[in-house]
Amino acid sequence: MKKLSTLFATVALLLVATFSASAVNDNVYKVADGKVTVTISDLAPNAEGTALVACYNIDVAADAIDNCSSLVLTPLVRDENGNKRLVEMIVINGSSRKINTEWLQRVCYGVCDPNSVRFYTAKEGESFHVKTCTQIPYDEWMDNGAAFYVTTQKATYKPNCIHNNPGEEYICDIPYLSEPLVIDPVLAPIPVEAKLEGSRILRTKLFYPVNVTKKVDNYLENAEALELLNTLDNGNFDVTSVVIEGWASPEATVRYNENLSINRAKTVKGIISDKYNFPQDVYSVKGNGEYWDSIIDYVDNTTEPIVAENRAAIQDAIAANGDLDKREAAIKKIANGKAYKAIFDAVYPRCRFAEAVVSFTNRGYNRADVEALYKSDPAHVSADEYVLWIQDGAPLAAAEKAAELYPNDARVAAVAAAAEYKAGNIDKAIELYKKAGNSEEIYNNLAACYLAKGDAENAKKYLDKVSDKKLNDTNSNELRKVVLNNKYFGK
Q1: Fewest CB atoms within 10 Å of the CB: 35, 133, 142, 304?
Q2: Structure confidence at residue 15 (pLDDT)
Q3: H-type alpha helices, 292-439
């Protein structure tokens, strides 16, 4: 008689009527007359298409289970052609039932893999929560019209009996994707080393109006230059030398300009020595007279019409006159002085300056110091300083400049790539990560970049190079989501 009751119970588990669950919202469904809530988070194939990932929560109301009975919940996938796969069986015994009910165990094990049968005992008057995230084999028939169902049945004892309560209820179609899945790749931190010990130089210019030797704070870029000079007392710096050279534009005589240039250099020395107590033997101060380098470069390359039209004549005047006073006089005669006027307006203001080159030993990283160096001239910032500054939240422009200045430094490439990724510049991040070495962290981050682009093929190529399971698992599920998005919603 016991065997016969087990047989009847097994048949009851297989033969159930189908109803439709009541949808509360997009992913929440009510079954069993509203006493059981099924919340779907994931019902879709894995990236390889070999398994169906089934993740959902089931909440059972306190009054859904009698003390002396058991509630049997069977989530399953099936189609209209008789194809079926059980996901699991969940048996929740009433508070008066023992969890190890042999009769019900035999019944459940007869229709479901014992490893997928779970038994629980509810507490009287309390609701019950079950969370599932598992995989079942993915079959071809699941691609065409398969759906997810939950069967709710009640088991009673003396006599042993299982009946529908109310039975099989439709939940949703497979796959469950109402909209594209959100792709959230994870970048792996890349260990980089940066050392700031060693000799460095800081270079800056103070400009002067014509015939002026005293400092003018707000003339041209002088405010930035003075700000940079204000950093020399930082505890991270040990200044070893200060070389100052003054220059003048050529509009006066050579002798006058030599005096002008030395006085401009002395002004810069005074600015530094008045502020800092550096030994006098660290200073080297001289005047170089007239500054022709910028003038010659302008003449050779400008597109300004008057100068360009008379370029050869101006170049001849420069080459033929080693005497700088005669050189300037010769240029003034060309094109009735119009060429000289164009050169004067465009170039002369930046020929009046004193340049300070400060050599120092840098003891450590200080963000304010690095920012001052960068503001004066990005080339003043070393690769090590860029690495530390970018990791410290430097602006994107600084990361891009670092990559430009140090194209062969893998450390710079790695931190700059992360900054580009954060800014949404994925193609630039890929370009930089490819210069950052061959570590598993780099491969993971390249995979993350391609995932962000929706490129599953390249993402998988790099993810396959990540042998560390924990690191690989980080983005494997994101790869699966990209594959699904591309399949069901297009790239």
Answers
A1: 133
A2: 47
A3: 293-301, 305-309, 311-320, 324-332, 338-347, 367-376, 383-391, 396-405, 410-422, 426-433
| Beta carbons of 448 and 436 less than 8 angstroms apart | no
- Reported as half-sphere exposure (CB side, CA atoms, 13 A), residue 360 has a value of 25
Alpha helices in 27-122 (DSSP H): 102-111
- Poorest-pLDDT segment among 45-54, 277-286, 308-317, 328-337: 45-54
Residues 338-392: pLDDT tens digits?
Answer: 999 999 999 999 999 999 998 877 767 878 878 877 887 898 888 988 999 999 9
Cis peptide before 159 (omega within 30 of 0): yes
Give CA separation, 47 vs 43, 50, 145, 376, 486, in Å: 13, 8, 20, 51, 11
Q: Which domains does the chain have, with CATH numbers?
A: 2-173 (no CATH), 199-359 (3.30.1330.60), 382-489 (1.25.40.10)
| Joined tokens for residue 412 | 């710079």
Pairing of strands 84-86, 28-31: unpaired
> How many Cβ atoms from other residues are within 10 Å of residue 328's Cβ?
24
| Predicted TM-score of the model (pTM) | 0.56
Q: Is the pLDDT of residue 459 over 80?
A: yes
Residue 318 makes CB contacts below 8 A (sequence gap 6+) with 292, 296, 299, 327, 331
Query: β-strands 18-20, 237-248: how paired?
Result: unpaired
CB 422 within 8 A of CB 438: no
**CB neighbour class for 246 (10 Å; exposed up to 12, middle 13-18, buried from 19):** buried
Ramachandran quadrant class, 435 (left: phi over 0; alpha: psi -120 to 50; beta: rest): alpha
CA 400, CA 398: separation in Å to the nearest integer?
Answer: 5
Contact 410, 403 (CB under 8 A): no
Q: What is the pLDDT of residue 230?
A: 76
Number of H helices, E strands in the chain: 17, 16
Grade residue 7 by pLDDT with cuts at 50, 70 and 90: very low
Q: SS3 sequence, 22-44?
A: EEEECCEEEECCCCEEEEEEEEE
